[in-house]
Amino acid sequence: MTEVRNESGPDLGAVWHYGDPMREQRELTDGRGAVDQSHRGVLSITGPDRLTWLHSLTSQHFEALAPGTATTALLLSPNGHIEHVMEGVDDGETFWAHTEPGAAAALVQFLDSMRFMMRVEVADLTDTHGVVWRPAPPEASTGDDLVVRVRDDALGGHEVIAPLDRIDDLLGDQRAGTWAFEALRIAAGVPRIGIDTDHRTIPNEIGLVGVHLDKGCYRGQETVARVHNLGRPPRRLVLLHLDGSVEALPEVGAELSSGGRAVGFVGSSARHFELGPIALGLVKRNTATDAELVTGEIACGQEPLVDPEVGLHVRPKLR
Q1: Per the annotation, does 93 bind a ligand?
Q2: Rounded to two decimals, what is the model's pTM?
């Protein structure tokens, strides 16, 4: 099986495709295949206080989290800016999570610094564990050393956190690369923290991903609650349909403009087997929802993913 690996970008070193990324996308859409995501960071949190501790630190509700229920949680700055993300599941004894490539060490260091007298232990498992995503549930005989998580977003599918020596067997013969996975994720409107966001992004701008609005205080809550109550987040997430006549895709962070004025930036991009070239972007709230956008020489149509007026006073427009 031919492997072509990413030579740059956030997924550096991961398999980009196995020779036919469009076929790989179609197979994933049809419920077949698996994607190796072992380049992502993996961590575990153990101890009897882990859920109440995470509840106090993050944007998510953990106190009543049932074993086997997937959750996504953000760690925010005091001003409400997104600093870290954890996509995880608790098995009744351990909270298992993965995060963006290269981010686990800093995340674990921060969590360790916040333990104080709590009965918790945080471990970086990136060197020993990996993640496999597949649209269908894994085989029933996967074994006790695997953690299965059903994604809690519009992309869906099943993630298996496993020791690295189990990854090859979990992938099987029908494999897909990050090109196929990213194309489906972007089409589903699911942002990646640190790629489709920047250091100023607040959760309201990306649809309150990983945020529970009915819980107690946590760092950055004041900003999230204020913008939610008043509406009108400073920026909003959009799905970009790129001009297919231009061969290149925009770089992560490329400027988006409208009428010669900078209005935002491009995050991740990919070529989708049905939609063509697509990307996610973050644009200023006052950018008209039907405005034509441009990044470099590439014209972009936009599909709003977050209503520019969203808040308690307005009903969000659902896709």
Answers
A1: no
A2: 0.95
